[in-house]
Each structure stands twice: as C-alpha cells, then as structure tokens.
Automatic annotation (TrEMBL), chain A:
The lineage of its organism: Bacteria, Bacillati, Bacillota, Clostridia, Eubacteriales. One of its GO terms (molecular function) is branched-chain amino acid transmembrane transporter activity. SMART domains: AAA (SM00382). Keywords: Amino-acid transport, ATP-binding, Nucleotide-binding, Transport. This is ABC transporter ATP-binding protein. Belongs to the ABC transporter superfamily. SUPFAM superfamilies: P-loop containing nucleoside triphosphate hydrolases.
Automatic annotation (TrEMBL), chain B:
It is a multi-pass membrane protein. One of its GO terms (molecular function) is branched-chain amino acid transmembrane transporter activity. This is Branched-chain amino acid ABC transporter permease. InterPro entries: ABC_transp_permease, LivM-like. PANTHER family: HIGH-AFFINITY BRANCHED-CHAIN AMINO ACID TRANSPORT PROTEIN BRAE, HIGH-AFFINITY BRANCHED-CHAIN AMINO ACID TRANSPORT SYSTEM PERMEASE. Its main location: membrane. The chain crosses the membrane at residues 35-53, 60-79, 85-104, 111-133, 148-168, 200-222, 234-262, 274-293. It comes from the Bacteria. One of its GO terms (cellular component) is plasma membrane. Keywords: Cell membrane, Membrane, Transmembrane, Transmembrane helix. It is found in: Cell membrane.
Length: 233, 312
C-alpha cells in the first residue's frame, strides 16, 4: 500500500533521514520504533508532504506522492495524527472533529461524528468545550477522532502515548486494533515500544535515519538486543 | 453580547456617522474622514494580521500602490477616475495575491520583516518609474466638498466591517481560524493553506487600495514618502491590536480611540501625539494584550456556539 524507497530528507542543510526504505501492506499495523531524533517524525512529515524529500520515492497504491501538496495527499486517503496533538485550541471539540472531515463532501459526516462520540464518550460529553481545556488524554482522543473523521485508508499515528497515563495509552492502542478491523491500515510511531509491538504485525527499528532492523513484531519483542536498548529489561 | 444587540449597535454607529456632516464644521468632518479612513485600513490589516495571524508590517504598500496607480492612470492615460480606481484596486489585489505566495511561506517575525521590506521596495520602484509619478508624485484636480470624501471613506469602512463579519462567520473564516491556531494541523486535515492565506492577503490588499484611491483624490496631491509612510502600517496595526485583533468592531474602535486622542494631543503640541501613540502601544502590550474587545472573551475555556460541518 505504502512503499518508501531510498528516501533522504531533512531540514535546512541537515539530513535526518538517510536512504530509508520500508513498506506497509494493506490491513497491517506496522510499528516504527526508535530513539528521540532517529527521524520518525521527519519521516511521517515527509510522507504527508509537509516536508519535501531530497531524494528517493514514496508511492501509495502505486502512485508517487513526492511533490504532491499535503491537501492532495490527505485527499488520497492518508491522514496523520500529529505528535503533540496539535488541536485547534480555540475551537470546540466538535469543531475540531468537523475540521477532520474538511475534504469530505458526502452526507455521512454527522453520522461519523456520532460514531466518534460512541468510540469516545468523553468527547461526546465535552463536544461544546474548547479543545484547549481538555486533559492530555482527552486531547489525544480528540486528535485521533479528528483523523478518523477523514475516513483514512492509511493512518499515521505519531507518538500517541506522549505524556499520557499508562491506562490511557493502553486504551488508545487497543483502539488502534479496532480501527484496523474497520479497514484502516496503520503506521504506528511509538516510544512505548512494548505496547506498540504487542499490537503490531511487523516492526521497523529506525536508527540514525536508517532502518537497522525489520521483523515481525513478535520477533522484535523477543530480541535481546532490542530489549536492552528500548525496553530496559 | 447577543447578535441582536450587535446589529442594533452597528446600525446606531452607522446612522450617527451618516448624520455627522449635518451638524458639524469642516474641521470635524476632516477629522472624521481621517478616522473613517483608518477604520477601513485597520479592518483591512485585521484580515491578514488578526484573522489569519500573520502580522504584516507592509500593508501601506497596498494603500500607496492603489493611490499611485489610480493617479497614474488618470493623469498619464487620461482615464476617467472611476476606471482608474477600479484598475488600481484590481491591480493591487493581484499584487497582494502574487506576492502573498512567496511571503506567506514565512512566519512570525520573518514574515513581518519581509512585508516591511516589500513596502519599502514598492516605494523605491514607484519613486524610480516616471509613469508612476517618480519622486515628484501627482497633482489631481480638486474636487468639491470634503463631505464627499467623508462619505466615501465611511462607505469603505462599513464595507470592510461588514466584509469582516461575513468572513468570520463563513467557511473561509473557519479556515483562517484553523490556520491561525495551528497551521500544521490545518494542513494535515487537508486545508490548502497557501491559497487561503494568499486570498486573505489579497482581500486585505483590495481594501487597502480602495482607501488609497480615495485618499489620492481627497488630498489632490500625493508623493511616495506620504503614501508609503511605514507609520501608516503602524497605525493600522496598533489600532487593530488596541481594539481587538480578529474581531469585527476592534479595528474600528481602535481607529476612533487613537484618532480622537491624536487630535486632542495635537491641540497641545505636534509631538504630543507621537508620545501618546508610544504610551498607547505600551499600555496595550502591558494591560490589554488581547485588545479592548478581547478582554471580555475568555482566552481559554467557555462554551462555543454550535459547530457547522466544513467542506473543502
């Protein structure tokens, strides 16, 4: 579904990603793990067209994405839940969710809104509340809900667990399984490596802007070196 | 305040402004013309600086370009002034749209400094092109009573305020609000932010140029240092911030307050008005960072009205 080959990207004169290749197949949950500064967020931003790659290619369903504007890429069915939530702080919860459906023109937006409130009853209770006043967990639910409102075929999740209580992290990641059941492919960027690998099909380890390891999630979980490096076991 | 109260207030203010020339002297009309002019200019600045969150320091470029283009077309090509004015407004809007594309890639201070340079560069070009009047400027025929210009400026100010109201309550207004609150998030939900920002900049340019073409005729003599004075941008900005950026009435309120205070200070000494402006800026920054109309609105929290679905 998504195929990245020999990608190089960065900011200004500084390359962050060097010769990166990876693949995500339809229906999968793929975890991308790596320490701070490994290039995870840079990769997601490059996929979304928020950052122009220096070289290499990104194809989605056989179509080249590099050079396309972000709104075109969103229109093709890819959506990112950005790191740090990045809600429209002055808008209400409901307005934020509706912004997620920005490019949609079908008549099922209201129905999807109710579906999101079914998924996150807390958001339903606070639908008129300003998004900036939500708790961290609620904000992350709202950000995820906003992404789902675009009905993405491929969802890129950037560090959902950041700053959240373990019980909320588990709840959100369990939801990712549910999202996949409903037909959305997921590329999961996580620092909570164990929780991510427990739910993913496959995993890539990103180190210094390159993929250093790629294996089924179960194998990565059992990998001794990885356990030492990321799981603190 | 409820919608009804706002509409009533708007009607009263416009009616009072319309009746003003009946009761007062020439001096008062001239001052009121200046205030209406700045209300329109501040409202035009508010579109890009307040609604979109891009603090432009170069909006005087559109005012000046409007004035100079209209004068050049009417004096050099002998166009009827109304045609020249229309062409000048459209030309300035196009100028804003095209230059907005590169300039609006910059953010924060970088955008401010680039727009400051844009205004200075525009003045430099105008000063060196004979068709645009060069350093000499233009003399335009004197036109009848000052009341005409008062009503023209007032008309543009009302148009600017009504336009701002319509934009704020429109789909486009929601897009600008999204860009202002988090541009990356706006891009991520599929907003074509480049197009939206450039459109806001172009609309700001159109309004600024409208004021410029009327100003040229009102003053009947214009030259580059006058119509490209960076101080004009500073006034637009300070008035908007003082009244309340991103609101409909804020720029108008700011223009009235600063306009009246400036006149009062002038009666003491010419320098007193600059002093007052400086103190005003400090007071706004320290005590009213959200402007006069912003004080009553909660910065965070509180309920918002029901949301509407958005479509791209």
């Amino acid at each position: 579904m998504l195929k990245i080959s020999h990608l190089k990207a960065g900011y200004g004169d500084t390359a962050i990603i060097w010769d990166l290749s990876l693949e995500v197949n339809a229906g999968e949950i793929v975890a991308l793990i790596g320490v701070n500064g490994a290039g995870k967020t840079t990769l997601l931003r490059t996929i979304m067209g928020l950052l122009a790659p220096w070289s290499g290619s990104i194809t989605y369903r056989g179509r080249e994405l590099t050079g396309l504007a972000t709104d075109r890429i969103v229109g093709l069915g890819i959506n990112m839940t950005p790191q740090g939530r990045r809600l429209f702080a002055g808008m209400s919860v409901e307005e934020n969710l509706l912004m997620g459906a920005f490019l949609r023109r079908d008549g099922e937006i209201k129905a999807d809104l109710e579906r999101i409130y079914g998924l996150f009853p807390r958001l339903g209770e606070r639908r008129r509340q300003t998004a900036g006043t939500l708790s961290g967990g609620e904000q992350q639910m709202c950000a995820l809900g906003r992404s789902l409102m675009s009905r993405p075929a491929l969802l890129l999740l950037d560090e959902m667990s950041l700053g959240l209580a373990p019980v909320v992290v588990e709840m959100l990641l369990d939801l990712v399984l549910q999202i996949r059941e409903q037909g959305t492919t997921v590329l999961l960027v996580e620092q909570d490596v164990e929780e991510a690998l427990l739910r993913a099909d496959r995993g890539y380890v990103l180190e210094g802007g390159r993929i250093s390891l790629s294996a089924p999630a179960g194998e990565l979980l059992a990998d001794r070196k990885l356990q030492e490096a990321y799981l603190g076991l | 305040m409820s919608k009804r109260v706002n509409y009533a207030l708007f009607a009263v203010v416009v009616l009072a402004a319309l009746l003003l020339p009946l009761t007062s002297n020439d001096y008062l009309i001239q001052v009121a013309t200046g205030i209406a002019m700045y209300a329109a200019l501040a409202s035009s600045w508010n579109l890009i600086g307040g609604l979109t969150g891009y603090p432009s320091f170069g909006n005087v470029a559109f005012f000046g370009l409007g004035a100079v283009l209209a004068a050049a077309l009417s004096v050099n090509l002998h166009w009827p002034y109304i045609d020249a004015a229309l062409a000048a407004v459209l030309g300035s809007g196009l100028f804003g749209l095209v230059l907005g594309l590169p300039l609006l890639r910059l953010r924060g201070h970088y955008f401010s400094i680039a727009t400051l340079a844009l205004a200075e560069a525009t003045m430099a070009v105008v000063t060196n092109v004979n068709f645009l009047g060069g350093g000499q400027g233009f003399s335009l025929p004197l036109l009848g009573s000052g009341k005409i210009f008062y009503y023209l400026m007032l008309g543009i100010a009302v148009l600017a305020a009504a336009g701002t109201y319509l934009i704020i309550n429109s789909h486009f207004g929601n897009i600008l609000l999204a860009i202002k609150s988090d541009e990356l998030a706006a891009q991520s939900v599929g907003v074509n932010t480049v197009l939206a920002k450039s459109t806001a900049f172009a609309l700001s340019a159109v309004l600024g140029a409208m004021v410029g073409v009327v100003y040229a005729l009102w003053q009947s003599y214009i030259d580059p240092p006058t119509v490209f004075d960076p101080g004009i941008t500073v006034f637009m900005l300070v008035m908007t911030l003082m009244g309340g950026a991103g609101t409909v009435a804020g720029p108008v309120l700011g223009a009235v307050i600063i306009g009246v205070l400036t006149q009062l200070a002038m009666s003491f000494s010419k320098n007193a008005s600059s002093l007052l402006l400086g103190l005003g800026i400090m007071a706004v920054v320290l005590f009213l960072p959200r402007g006069i109309l912003g004080v009553h609105r909660p910065a965070k929290g509180g309920e918002r009205r029901g949301a509407r679905p958005l479509r791209g």
